[in-house]
C-alpha cells in the first residue's frame, strides 16, 4: 500500500506530489485530466490510480487537493472505501473539522494548510488533526509535510488567519517582486536580472527574520541610514499606504476563508 495518495494534481496537489516524489516517497495520484496524469508516468515511485476509489483503496493518507467546491462530491464518491485506519487530509480553506466530520463521520481527518513553495521544499504548513488521530499518526502526517518544508501544529481557531496569510502570501510576494522589477526596469535594468536580484534579496531578508530572531522593525532600521536612500523609499511607501494595504488584503482573505 502507498503511504500517500493525492486526489487532484493541479497547482497545490502537483507541488506536494513533486516535493514527495523528489524525496523518494512512494505515492499514488488521481486527477480528472489524463494529460496531467501522463506527466507522472515517468516517475518510478508514482502509481497512477484508475480513479479516486482505486486511490483510496491503495493508500493510507489521502490528500484531497481538488477545489473546495468539489470536496463534497469527491468525499461522497470515496466514503465507502474510506476505512477507519485511513486519514483524510483536507487542504481547502473554510472546511472546518466539523464540516469535514459531517461529510465523513467517525474517520481520521486532519486540516492542513500548505503553500505552493512546497515545490522547492519551502512550504509553511499548519496541521490541525481531529481527535481520532493517534500521536503516532500525527507524527507520521507531520513527517510527510516536513518533506516539503516547515510544519506547525495549530489550533483550529487560528486556521483562517493562517490560510489568509501563509496560503495566499506567495501571491503577494510574487506581485511585490514583479512590481520591484518594474521599478528596476524603469531605471534601465534587464528584466531577468531584476527578477533574480530581487528574489535573492527577498530570500535573504526572510532568512534574516528567521535566523536572527530580531524584530522586523529593527532589521528595517539596520538598512535605513540617516538621510540615506532607503528612508526616501520608506516615506513613499508610508504615503501610499503600503502597510495598510497589506493588512487590509490579509483581512479580506481571512474573511473570505471564514465564509467559504
Ligand atoms: N493553489 C494554492 O496556492 C493553494 C494553497 C493552499 C490550499 N490550496 C487548496 O488546494 C486545493 C486545490 O487548489 P489548486 O489551486 O491546486 O487547484 P487546481 O490547480 O484547480 O487543482 C485541482 C486539480 O484537481 C483536479 N480534479 C478536478 N476534479 C477532480 C476529481 N473529481 N477527481 C480528481 N481530481 C479532480 C483538477 O483537474 P481539472 O483541472 O482537469 O479539473 C485539477 O488538476 C483547493 O482546495 C485549494 O483551496 C491551494
Automatic annotation (TrEMBL):
It catalyses: L-proline + NAD(+) = (S)-1-pyrroline-5-carboxylate + NADH + 2 H(+); L-proline + NADP(+) = (S)-1-pyrroline-5-carboxylate + NADPH + 2 H(+). Catalyzes the reduction of 1-pyrroline-5-carboxylate (PCA) to L-proline. GO terms for biological process: L-proline biosynthetic process. NADP(+) binds at residues 65-68. One of its GO terms (cellular component) is cytoplasm. Its EC number is 1.5.1.2. It comes from the Bacteria. Keywords: Amino-acid biosynthesis, Cytoplasm, NADP, Oxidoreductase, Proline biosynthesis. It comes from Anaerosphaera aminiphila DSM 21120. Its main location: cytoplasm. GO terms for molecular function: pyrroline-5-carboxylate reductase activity. NCBIfam families: proC (TIGR00112). It is found in: Cytoplasm. The lineage of its organism: Bacteria, Bacillati, Bacillota, Tissierellia, Tissierellales. NADPH binds at residue 52. Pathway: Amino-acid biosynthesis; L-proline biosynthesis; L-proline from L-glutamate 5-semialdehyde: step 1/1. This is Pyrroline-5-carboxylate reductase. SUPFAM superfamilies: 6-phosphogluconate dehydrogenase C-terminal domain-like, NAD(P)-binding Rossmann-fold domains. Residues 156-260 form the Pyrroline-5-carboxylate reductase dimerisation domain. Residues 3-93 form the Pyrroline-5-carboxylate reductase catalytic N-terminal domain.
Amino acid at each position: 500500500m502507498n503511504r500517500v495518495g493525492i486526489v487532484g494534481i493541479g497547482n497545490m496537489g502537483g507541488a506536494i506530489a513533486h516535493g514527495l516524489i523528489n524525496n523518494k516517497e512512494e505515492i499514488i495520484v488521481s486527477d480528472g485530466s489524463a494529460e496531467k496524469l501522463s506527466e507522472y508516468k515517468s516517475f518510478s515511485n508514482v502509481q497512477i490510480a484508475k480513479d479516486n476509489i482505486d486511490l483510496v483503496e491503495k493508500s493510507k493518507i489521502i490528500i484531497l487537493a481538488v477545489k473546495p467546491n468539489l470536496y463534497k462530491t469527491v468525499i461522497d464518491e470515496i466514503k465507502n472505501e474510506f476505512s477507519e485506519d485511513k486519514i483524510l487530509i483536507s487542504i481547502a480553506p473554510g472546511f472546518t473539522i466539523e464540516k469535514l466530520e459531517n461529510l465523513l463521520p467517525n474517520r481520521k481527518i486532519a486540516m492542513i494548510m500548505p503553500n505552493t513553495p512546497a515545490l522547492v521544499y519551502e512550504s509553511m504548513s499548519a496541521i490541525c488533526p481531529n481527535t481520532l488521530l493517534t500521536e503516532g499518526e500525527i507524527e507520521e502526517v507531520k513527517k510527510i509535510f516536513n518533506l516539503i518544508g516547515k510544519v506547525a501544529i495549530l489550533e483550529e481557531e487560528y486556521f483562517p488567519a493562517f490560510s489568509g496569510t501563509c496560503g495566499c502570501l506567495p501571491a503577494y510576494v510574487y506581485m511585490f517582486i514583479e512590481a520591484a522589477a518594474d521599478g528596476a526596469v524603469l531605471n534601465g535594468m534587464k528584466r531577468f536580472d531584476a527578477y533574480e536580484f530581487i528574489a535573492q534579496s527577498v530570500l535573504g531578508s526572510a532568512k534574516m527574520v528567521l535566523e536572527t530572531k530580531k524584530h522586523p522593525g529593527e532589521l528595517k532600521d539596520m538598512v535605513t541610514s540617516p538621510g540615506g536612500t532607503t528612508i526616501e523609499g520608506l516615506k513613499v511607501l508610508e504615503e501610499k499606504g503600503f502597510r495598510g494595504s497589506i493588512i487590509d488584503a490579509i483581512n479580506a482573505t481571512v474573511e473570505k476563508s471564514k465564509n467559504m
